[in-house]
Protein backbone atom coordinates (compact mmCIF):
# COMPACT_ATOMS: atom_id res chain seq x y z
CA UNK A 1 0.00 0.00 0.00
CA UNK A 2 1.34 3.42 -0.93
CA UNK A 3 2.31 5.86 1.81
CA UNK A 4 1.08 8.75 -0.40
CA UNK A 5 -2.17 10.30 0.76
CA UNK A 6 -5.28 9.64 -1.27
CA UNK A 7 -6.11 12.22 -3.89
CA UNK A 8 -8.89 14.32 -2.33
CA UNK A 9 -10.30 14.96 -5.81
CA UNK A 10 -10.61 11.26 -6.55
CA UNK A 11 -14.13 10.20 -7.27
CA UNK A 12 -15.31 13.74 -7.99
CA UNK A 13 -15.74 15.53 -11.32
CA UNK A 14 -12.78 17.71 -10.38
CA UNK A 15 -10.40 14.77 -10.70
CA UNK A 16 -11.08 14.57 -14.43
CA UNK A 17 -11.10 18.34 -14.79
CA UNK A 18 -7.73 18.84 -13.12
CA UNK A 19 -6.23 16.03 -15.15
CA UNK A 20 -7.34 17.89 -18.26
CA UNK A 21 -5.65 21.02 -16.94
CA UNK A 22 -2.39 19.39 -15.96
CA UNK A 23 -2.16 16.68 -18.57
CA UNK A 24 -0.83 14.30 -15.90
CA UNK A 25 -1.15 13.83 -12.17
CA UNK A 26 1.62 14.57 -9.75
CA UNK A 27 3.00 12.30 -7.07
CA UNK A 28 0.42 10.00 -5.51
CA UNK A 29 -2.08 10.92 -8.20
CA UNK A 30 -2.52 14.40 -6.74
CA UNK A 31 -2.89 17.09 -9.44
CA UNK A 32 0.19 19.22 -10.09
CA UNK A 33 -1.08 22.64 -9.07
CA UNK A 34 1.94 24.43 -10.54
CA UNK A 35 1.15 22.97 -13.93
CA UNK A 36 -2.46 23.89 -13.53
CA UNK A 37 -1.57 27.49 -12.61
CA UNK A 38 0.54 27.86 -15.74
CA UNK A 39 -2.11 26.51 -18.07
CA UNK A 40 -4.98 28.48 -16.55
CA UNK A 41 -3.08 31.77 -16.46
CA UNK A 42 -3.95 32.56 -20.06
CA UNK A 43 -7.65 32.28 -19.30
CA UNK A 44 -7.40 34.69 -16.38
CA UNK A 45 -5.77 37.66 -18.09
CA UNK A 46 -7.69 40.89 -17.50
CA UNK A 47 -9.76 39.31 -14.74
CA UNK A 48 -8.03 40.71 -11.64
CA UNK A 49 -10.38 43.51 -10.58
CA UNK A 50 -12.28 41.34 -8.14
CA UNK A 51 -15.58 41.53 -9.99
CA UNK A 52 -17.57 38.35 -10.60
CA UNK A 53 -17.62 39.13 -14.34
CA UNK A 54 -14.62 39.92 -16.55
CA UNK A 55 -16.05 43.13 -17.96
CA UNK A 56 -13.02 43.93 -20.11
CA UNK A 57 -13.60 40.67 -21.92
CA UNK A 58 -17.35 41.30 -22.05
CA UNK A 59 -16.88 44.69 -23.70
CA UNK A 60 -14.36 43.35 -26.18
CA UNK A 61 -16.63 40.50 -27.27
CA UNK A 62 -19.69 42.77 -27.41
CA UNK A 63 -17.92 45.22 -29.70
CA UNK A 64 -16.66 42.42 -31.91
CA UNK A 65 -20.17 40.99 -32.12
CA UNK A 66 -21.52 44.39 -33.15
CA UNK A 67 -18.77 44.87 -35.71
CA UNK A 68 -19.35 41.44 -37.25
CA UNK A 69 -23.06 42.23 -37.72
CA UNK A 70 -22.33 45.63 -39.27
CA UNK A 71 -22.31 49.01 -37.59
CA UNK A 72 -21.92 52.28 -39.47
CA UNK A 73 -20.77 55.56 -37.99
CA UNK A 74 -23.37 58.12 -36.97
CA UNK A 75 -23.64 61.15 -39.26
CA UNK A 76 -24.59 64.75 -38.51
CA UNK A 77 -27.88 64.11 -40.32
CA UNK A 78 -28.66 61.32 -37.87
CA UNK A 79 -27.90 63.59 -34.94
CA UNK A 80 -30.05 66.44 -36.28
CA UNK A 81 -33.03 64.17 -36.95
CA UNK A 82 -32.90 62.74 -33.46
CA UNK A 83 -32.57 66.22 -31.93
CA UNK A 84 -35.62 67.46 -33.87
CA UNK A 85 -37.68 64.44 -32.82
CA UNK A 86 -36.73 64.84 -29.16
CA UNK A 87 -37.62 68.56 -29.15
CA UNK A 88 -41.05 67.88 -30.63
CA UNK A 89 -41.59 64.96 -28.27
CA UNK A 90 -40.88 67.15 -25.24
CA UNK A 91 -43.44 69.67 -26.49
CA UNK A 92 -46.13 67.03 -26.99
CA UNK A 93 -45.54 65.45 -23.59
CA UNK A 94 -46.07 68.72 -21.72
CA UNK A 95 -49.83 68.20 -21.86
CA UNK A 96 -49.70 64.46 -21.14
CA UNK A 97 -47.78 64.43 -17.85
CA UNK A 98 -47.01 66.69 -14.93
CA UNK A 99 -43.42 65.45 -14.77
CA UNK A 100 -41.16 68.20 -16.18
CA UNK A 101 -38.76 68.19 -19.11
CA UNK A 102 -35.72 66.05 -18.38
CA UNK A 103 -33.86 65.66 -21.66
CA UNK A 104 -31.32 68.44 -21.53
CA UNK A 105 -29.45 66.86 -24.46
CA UNK A 106 -30.09 64.28 -27.17
CA UNK A 107 -27.85 61.87 -29.02
CA UNK A 108 -27.86 59.41 -31.90
CA UNK A 109 -25.81 56.33 -31.06
CA UNK A 110 -24.30 53.60 -33.13
CA UNK A 111 -24.58 50.06 -31.79
CA UNK A 112 -20.98 50.15 -30.58
CA UNK A 113 -21.67 53.41 -28.74
CA UNK A 114 -24.66 51.78 -27.04
CA UNK A 115 -22.38 49.01 -25.76
CA UNK A 116 -19.75 51.47 -24.54
CA UNK A 117 -22.13 53.91 -22.89
CA UNK A 118 -24.47 51.44 -21.18
CA UNK A 119 -21.82 49.06 -19.86
CA UNK A 120 -21.50 50.78 -16.43
CA UNK A 121 -25.20 50.23 -15.75
CA UNK A 122 -25.03 46.64 -16.98
CA UNK A 123 -22.34 46.05 -14.39
CA UNK A 124 -24.76 47.21 -11.70
CA UNK A 125 -27.47 44.92 -13.05
CA UNK A 126 -25.43 41.79 -13.70
CA UNK A 127 -22.82 41.77 -10.93
CA UNK A 128 -25.21 40.88 -8.06
CA UNK A 129 -26.49 37.90 -10.05
CA UNK A 130 -23.08 36.82 -11.30
CA UNK A 131 -21.63 37.04 -7.79
CA UNK A 132 -23.63 33.99 -6.78
CA UNK A 133 -23.29 32.11 -10.05
CA UNK A 134 -19.57 32.57 -10.68
CA UNK A 135 -18.76 31.79 -7.04
CA UNK A 136 -20.43 28.41 -7.42
CA UNK A 137 -17.39 27.04 -9.25
CA UNK A 138 -15.19 27.44 -6.19
CA UNK A 139 -17.97 26.45 -3.85
CA UNK A 140 -18.48 23.19 -5.73
CA UNK A 141 -15.10 21.90 -4.54
CA UNK A 142 -15.21 19.26 -1.78
CA UNK A 143 -14.11 20.55 1.63
CA UNK A 144 -10.87 18.51 1.63
CA UNK A 145 -10.12 19.64 -1.89
CA UNK A 146 -10.63 23.28 -0.93
CA UNK A 147 -7.87 22.95 1.70
CA UNK A 148 -5.53 21.39 -0.86
CA UNK A 149 -6.37 23.70 -3.70
CA UNK A 150 -5.91 26.92 -1.76
CA UNK A 151 -5.52 29.61 -4.41
CA UNK A 152 -6.96 27.26 -7.04
CA UNK A 153 -10.46 27.94 -5.68
CA UNK A 154 -9.93 31.63 -6.34
CA UNK A 155 -8.62 30.88 -9.81
CA UNK A 156 -11.70 28.83 -10.55
CA UNK A 157 -13.78 31.83 -9.53
CA UNK A 158 -11.79 34.01 -11.90
CA UNK A 159 -12.17 31.44 -14.62
CA UNK A 160 -15.92 31.47 -14.07
CA UNK A 161 -15.84 35.28 -14.33
CA UNK A 162 -14.05 35.06 -17.67
CA UNK A 163 -16.48 32.53 -19.07
CA UNK A 164 -19.40 34.53 -17.73
CA UNK A 165 -17.95 37.71 -19.21
CA UNK A 166 -17.67 36.09 -22.62
CA UNK A 167 -21.34 35.12 -22.56
CA UNK A 168 -22.49 38.51 -21.26
CA UNK A 169 -20.47 40.18 -24.00
CA UNK A 170 -22.09 38.01 -26.66
CA UNK A 171 -25.58 38.75 -25.31
CA UNK A 172 -24.98 42.52 -25.08
CA UNK A 173 -23.51 42.58 -28.58
CA UNK A 174 -26.67 40.95 -29.92
CA UNK A 175 -28.92 43.18 -27.81
CA UNK A 176 -27.16 46.22 -29.29
CA UNK A 177 -28.60 45.20 -32.64
CA UNK A 178 -32.18 45.20 -31.32
CA UNK A 179 -32.71 48.17 -28.96
CA UNK A 180 -34.00 51.43 -30.42
CA UNK A 181 -33.21 53.72 -27.47
CA UNK A 182 -31.32 53.89 -24.20
CA UNK A 183 -34.45 52.97 -22.20
CA UNK A 184 -35.88 50.36 -24.56
CA UNK A 185 -35.75 47.53 -22.01
CA UNK A 186 -37.25 49.65 -19.21
CA UNK A 187 -34.06 50.21 -17.23
CA UNK A 188 -32.23 53.57 -17.18
CA UNK A 189 -29.16 52.46 -19.10
CA UNK A 190 -28.04 55.79 -20.56
CA UNK A 191 -26.72 59.02 -19.04
CA UNK A 192 -29.17 60.98 -16.91
CA UNK A 193 -30.91 63.75 -18.85
CA UNK A 194 -29.90 62.54 -22.30
CA UNK A 195 -32.49 61.16 -24.73
CA UNK A 196 -30.86 58.62 -27.01
CA UNK A 197 -32.05 56.87 -30.18
CA UNK A 198 -30.26 54.30 -32.38
CA UNK A 199 -31.05 55.28 -36.00
CA UNK A 200 -30.06 52.00 -37.65
CA UNK A 201 -32.16 49.95 -35.24
CA UNK A 202 -35.12 52.28 -35.78
CA UNK A 203 -34.91 51.52 -39.50
CA UNK A 204 -34.93 47.82 -38.63
CA UNK A 205 -37.91 48.34 -36.29
CA UNK A 206 -39.88 50.11 -39.04
CA UNK A 207 -39.45 47.37 -41.63
CA UNK A 208 -42.80 46.20 -42.94
CA UNK A 209 -44.86 48.86 -41.14
CA UNK A 210 -45.26 51.05 -44.25
CA UNK A 211 -45.19 54.20 -42.14
CA UNK A 212 -43.32 57.46 -42.62
CA UNK A 213 -39.83 57.44 -41.12
CA UNK A 214 -40.65 60.67 -39.30
CA UNK A 215 -43.63 59.13 -37.54
CA UNK A 216 -41.67 56.09 -36.39
CA UNK A 217 -38.78 58.21 -35.17
CA UNK A 218 -41.07 60.64 -33.34
CA UNK A 219 -43.07 57.87 -31.69
CA UNK A 220 -39.93 56.17 -30.37
CA UNK A 221 -38.60 59.57 -29.28
CA UNK A 222 -41.81 60.12 -27.31
CA UNK A 223 -41.25 56.84 -25.48
CA UNK A 224 -37.62 57.66 -24.77
CA UNK A 225 -38.41 61.15 -23.51
CA UNK A 226 -41.25 59.81 -21.34
CA UNK A 227 -38.80 57.36 -19.76
CA UNK A 228 -36.35 60.18 -19.15
CA UNK A 229 -39.02 62.30 -17.46
CA UNK A 230 -40.06 59.41 -15.23
CA UNK A 231 -36.55 58.46 -14.10
CA UNK A 232 -35.59 62.11 -13.53
CA UNK A 233 -38.86 63.11 -11.87
CA UNK A 234 -38.97 60.08 -9.54
CA UNK A 235 -35.54 60.12 -7.85
CA UNK A 236 -36.04 56.83 -5.98
CA UNK A 237 -37.15 54.83 -9.04
CA UNK A 238 -33.71 54.04 -10.43
CA UNK A 239 -32.52 52.57 -7.15
CA UNK A 240 -35.87 50.84 -6.68
CA UNK A 241 -35.37 48.87 -9.91
CA UNK A 242 -31.76 48.00 -9.18
CA UNK A 243 -32.71 46.96 -5.64
CA UNK A 244 -35.29 44.62 -7.15
CA UNK A 245 -32.50 43.03 -9.21
CA UNK A 246 -30.30 42.69 -6.12
CA UNK A 247 -33.22 41.21 -4.17
CA UNK A 248 -33.65 38.66 -6.92
CA UNK A 249 -29.93 37.85 -6.86
CA UNK A 250 -29.94 37.26 -3.11
CA UNK A 251 -32.38 34.41 -3.55
CA UNK A 252 -30.44 32.53 -6.22
CA UNK A 253 -29.76 28.89 -5.46
CA UNK A 254 -27.21 27.36 -7.83
CA UNK A 255 -27.30 23.64 -8.61
CA UNK A 256 -23.69 22.83 -7.75
CA UNK A 257 -24.17 19.19 -8.62
CA UNK A 258 -25.00 20.18 -12.19
CA UNK A 259 -21.88 22.33 -12.34
CA UNK A 260 -19.72 19.48 -11.03
CA UNK A 261 -21.14 17.04 -13.56
CA UNK A 262 -20.68 19.45 -16.44
CA UNK A 263 -17.15 20.46 -15.43
CA UNK A 264 -16.03 16.82 -15.67
CA UNK A 265 -16.64 16.96 -19.41
CA UNK A 266 -15.23 20.43 -20.10
CA UNK A 267 -11.86 20.92 -21.76
CA UNK A 268 -10.42 24.04 -20.05
CA UNK A 269 -8.19 24.64 -23.07
CA UNK A 270 -11.22 24.92 -25.36
CA UNK A 271 -12.91 28.26 -24.60
CA UNK A 272 -15.53 27.72 -27.30
CA UNK A 273 -16.72 24.50 -25.67
CA UNK A 274 -16.84 26.20 -22.28
CA UNK A 275 -18.96 29.03 -23.71
CA UNK A 276 -21.32 26.51 -25.29
CA UNK A 277 -21.73 24.78 -21.94
CA UNK A 278 -22.51 28.07 -20.25
CA UNK A 279 -25.00 29.02 -22.98
CA UNK A 280 -26.71 25.70 -22.40
CA UNK A 281 -27.45 26.57 -18.79
CA UNK A 282 -24.36 25.33 -16.97
CA UNK A 283 -24.60 28.24 -14.55
CA UNK A 284 -28.32 28.81 -14.89
CA UNK A 285 -29.64 29.29 -11.35
CA UNK A 286 -32.30 27.01 -9.97
CA UNK A 287 -35.64 28.63 -9.23
CA UNK A 288 -36.55 28.91 -5.57
CA UNK A 289 -39.78 30.31 -4.14
CA UNK A 290 -37.91 33.34 -2.84
CA UNK A 291 -36.37 33.92 -6.25
CA UNK A 292 -39.69 33.56 -8.04
CA UNK A 293 -41.29 36.10 -5.71
CA UNK A 294 -38.41 38.55 -6.21
CA UNK A 295 -38.57 38.09 -9.97
CA UNK A 296 -42.33 38.77 -9.90
CA UNK A 297 -41.68 42.04 -8.04
CA UNK A 298 -39.06 43.05 -10.59
CA UNK A 299 -41.33 42.23 -13.52
CA UNK A 300 -44.17 44.19 -11.91
CA UNK A 301 -41.91 47.21 -11.45
CA UNK A 302 -40.83 47.05 -15.09
CA UNK A 303 -44.46 46.66 -16.20
CA UNK A 304 -45.50 49.73 -14.20
CA UNK A 305 -42.76 51.80 -15.83
CA UNK A 306 -43.65 50.65 -19.34
CA UNK A 307 -47.39 50.88 -18.72
CA UNK A 308 -47.07 54.48 -17.54
CA UNK A 309 -45.01 55.33 -20.61
CA UNK A 310 -47.67 53.70 -22.80
CA UNK A 311 -50.44 55.77 -21.26
CA UNK A 312 -48.54 59.04 -21.42
CA UNK A 313 -47.54 58.53 -25.04
CA UNK A 314 -51.08 57.47 -25.98
CA UNK A 315 -52.43 60.72 -24.51
CA UNK A 316 -49.77 62.77 -26.27
CA UNK A 317 -50.49 61.27 -29.69
CA UNK A 318 -54.24 60.60 -29.66
CA UNK A 319 -55.20 63.74 -31.59
CA UNK A 320 -51.94 64.21 -33.45
CA UNK A 321 -50.59 60.92 -34.83
CA UNK A 322 -52.97 58.42 -36.45
CA UNK A 323 -50.11 55.93 -36.82
CA UNK A 324 -49.61 55.81 -33.04
CA UNK A 325 -52.15 52.99 -32.57
CA UNK A 326 -50.27 50.76 -34.97
CA UNK A 327 -46.92 51.69 -33.47
CA UNK A 328 -48.15 51.05 -29.93
CA UNK A 329 -49.33 47.57 -30.86
CA UNK A 330 -46.03 46.87 -32.61
CA UNK A 331 -44.12 47.86 -29.47
CA UNK A 332 -46.35 45.65 -27.31
CA UNK A 333 -45.98 42.62 -29.53
CA UNK A 334 -42.24 43.15 -29.76
CA UNK A 335 -41.94 43.31 -25.99
CA UNK A 336 -44.19 40.29 -25.52
CA UNK A 337 -42.17 38.11 -27.88
CA UNK A 338 -38.71 39.26 -26.88
CA UNK A 339 -35.73 39.05 -29.20
CA UNK A 340 -32.99 36.43 -29.34
CA UNK A 341 -30.66 38.59 -27.27
CA UNK A 342 -33.21 38.99 -24.48
CA UNK A 343 -33.73 35.24 -24.43
CA UNK A 344 -29.97 34.64 -24.27
CA UNK A 345 -29.67 37.10 -21.40
CA UNK A 346 -32.55 35.46 -19.55
CA UNK A 347 -30.93 32.04 -19.88
CA UNK A 348 -27.59 33.42 -18.72
CA UNK A 349 -28.60 35.21 -15.54
CA UNK A 350 -32.22 34.17 -15.11
CA UNK A 351 -33.50 37.73 -15.52
CA UNK A 352 -36.57 38.42 -17.64
CA UNK A 353 -35.93 42.04 -18.63
CA UNK A 354 -39.33 42.54 -20.19
CA UNK A 355 -42.64 43.20 -18.49
CA UNK A 356 -45.01 40.26 -18.89
CA UNK A 357 -48.03 42.36 -17.97
CA UNK A 358 -47.49 45.54 -19.93
CA UNK A 359 -51.06 45.71 -21.23
CA UNK A 360 -52.52 45.27 -17.74
CA UNK A 361 -50.26 48.00 -16.38
CA UNK A 362 -51.16 50.39 -19.20
CA UNK A 363 -54.88 49.80 -18.54
CA UNK A 364 -54.36 50.42 -14.83
CA UNK A 365 -52.59 53.74 -15.37
CA UNK A 366 -55.30 54.81 -17.82
CA UNK A 367 -58.00 53.88 -15.29
CA UNK A 368 -56.30 55.96 -12.59
CA UNK A 369 -55.96 58.88 -15.00
CA UNK A 370 -59.65 58.62 -15.84
CA UNK A 371 -60.48 58.54 -12.13
CA UNK A 372 -58.13 61.18 -10.78
CA UNK A 373 -56.71 63.02 -13.77
CA UNK A 374 -53.13 63.32 -14.92
CA UNK A 375 -52.06 64.80 -11.57
CA UNK A 376 -53.55 61.91 -9.62
CA UNK A 377 -51.92 59.34 -11.88
CA UNK A 378 -48.48 60.90 -11.71
CA UNK A 379 -48.72 61.52 -7.95
CA UNK A 380 -48.68 57.76 -7.35
CA UNK A 381 -44.96 57.90 -8.17
CA UNK A 382 -44.35 60.14 -5.15
CA UNK A 383 -43.57 57.11 -2.97
CA UNK A 384 -42.95 53.42 -3.72
CA UNK A 385 -45.61 52.37 -1.19
CA UNK A 386 -48.26 54.07 -3.31
CA UNK A 387 -47.50 52.03 -6.42
CA UNK A 388 -49.90 49.32 -7.57
CA UNK A 389 -48.97 45.77 -6.60
CA UNK A 390 -48.94 42.63 -8.72
CA UNK A 391 -52.44 41.76 -7.53
CA UNK A 392 -53.65 45.25 -8.49
CA UNK A 393 -52.78 44.48 -12.10
CA UNK A 394 -55.41 41.75 -11.97
CA UNK A 395 -58.11 44.34 -11.23
CA UNK A 396 -57.17 47.75 -12.68
CA UNK A 397 -60.71 49.09 -12.38
CA UNK A 398 -60.93 48.07 -8.74
CA UNK A 399 -57.62 49.77 -8.01
CA UNK A 400 -58.77 52.95 -9.75
CA UNK A 401 -62.05 52.96 -7.81
CA UNK A 402 -60.23 52.43 -4.53
CA UNK A 403 -57.56 54.98 -5.32
CA UNK A 404 -59.84 57.60 -6.78
CA UNK A 405 -62.96 56.71 -4.78
CA UNK A 406 -64.82 56.94 -8.06
CA UNK A 407 -68.14 55.20 -8.65
CA UNK A 408 -68.48 55.80 -12.38
CA UNK A 409 -65.52 55.03 -14.64
CA UNK A 410 -65.74 55.16 -18.41
CA UNK A 411 -64.16 51.78 -19.15
CA UNK A 412 -63.96 52.42 -22.88
CA UNK A 413 -61.49 55.21 -22.27
CA UNK A 414 -58.76 52.91 -21.08
CA UNK A 415 -59.44 49.39 -22.29
CA UNK A 416 -57.44 48.07 -25.24
CA UNK A 417 -57.84 50.03 -28.44
CA UNK A 418 -60.59 48.57 -30.64
CA UNK A 419 -59.52 46.89 -33.89
CA UNK A 420 -58.94 49.25 -36.77
CA UNK A 421 -61.28 49.19 -39.77
CA UNK A 422 -58.27 48.37 -41.88
CA UNK A 423 -55.71 46.74 -39.59
CA UNK A 424 -52.19 47.68 -40.70
CA UNK A 425 -50.59 44.55 -39.28
CA UNK A 426 -50.44 41.34 -41.24
CA UNK A 427 -52.94 38.73 -40.03
CA UNK A 428 -53.99 40.56 -36.84
CA UNK A 429 -55.60 38.33 -34.21
CA UNK A 430 -59.34 38.63 -33.78
CA UNK A 431 -60.75 40.39 -30.74
CA UNK A 432 -57.29 41.11 -29.33
CA UNK A 433 -56.63 37.73 -27.63
CA UNK A 434 -54.33 37.93 -24.61
CA UNK A 435 -50.62 37.59 -25.15
CA UNK A 436 -47.97 36.26 -22.76
CA UNK A 437 -47.57 39.72 -21.28
CA UNK A 438 -51.24 39.68 -20.17
CA UNK A 439 -50.91 36.45 -18.23
CA UNK A 440 -49.65 36.28 -14.64
CA UNK A 441 -46.23 34.75 -14.28
CA UNK A 442 -46.78 31.05 -13.90
CA UNK A 443 -43.26 30.19 -12.85
Write a structural description.
- The protein is mainly alpha-helical and 443 residues long.
- It has helices at 13-22, 33-40, 55-69, 76-93, 111-134, 136-139, 143-149, 151-175, 199-206, 213-233, 237-250, 256-263, 271-279, 289-317, 324-337, 340-349, 358-379, 396-404, and strands spanning 105-108, 194-197.
- The protein has a two-stranded parallel ribbon.
- It is globular and about 70 Å long.
- The protein starts with 12 loop residues before the first helix and ends in a 39-residue tail after the last helix.
Low-confidence stretches: 1-9, 11-27, 404-434, 436-443
Gross geometry? globular
Strand content: under 5%
The whole-number mean of residue pLDDT values reads: 76
Alpha-beta content class: mainly alpha
| H/E element order | HHHHEHHHHEHHHHHHHHHH
Could you give a short account of the major beta sheet?
2 strands, parallel
The helix content, as a percent range, equals 55-70%
Radius of gyration: 25 Å
Strand order of the largest sheet: 1-2
Kindly report how far apart the N and C termini lie: 54 Å
Report the strand count: 2
Q: Count of helices? A: 18
Distinctive features:
443 residues; disordered N terminus; mainly alpha; disordered C terminus; two-stranded parallel sheet
Produce a short descriptive summary:
The protein is mainly α.
What is the strand and helix layout of this fold?
Blueprint: H1 13-22, H2 33-40, H3 55-69, H4 76-93, E1 105-108, H5 111-134, H6 136-139, H7 143-149, H8 151-175, E2 194-197, H9 199-206, H10 213-233, H11 237-250, H12 256-263, H13 271-279, H14 289-317, H15 324-337, H16 340-349, H17 358-379, H18 396-404
Parallel strand pairs: 1-2
Helix pairs in contact: 3-5, 3-8, 4-10, 5-8, 5-11, 8-13, 8-16, 9-10, 10-14, 11-14, 14-17, 17-18
Amino acid sequence: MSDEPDNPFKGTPFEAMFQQFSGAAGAGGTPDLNAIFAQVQQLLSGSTDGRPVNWDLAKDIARKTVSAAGDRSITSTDTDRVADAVRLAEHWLNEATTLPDASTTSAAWSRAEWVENTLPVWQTVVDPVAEHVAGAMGGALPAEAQQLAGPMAGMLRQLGGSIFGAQVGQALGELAGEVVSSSDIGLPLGPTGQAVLLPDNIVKFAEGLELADEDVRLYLALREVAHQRLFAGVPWLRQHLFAAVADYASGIEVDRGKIERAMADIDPQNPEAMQEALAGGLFEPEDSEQQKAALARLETALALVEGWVDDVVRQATKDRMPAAIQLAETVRRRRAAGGPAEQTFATLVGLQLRPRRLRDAANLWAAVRDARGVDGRDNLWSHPDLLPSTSDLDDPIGFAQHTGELSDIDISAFLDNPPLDNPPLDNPPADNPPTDEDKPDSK
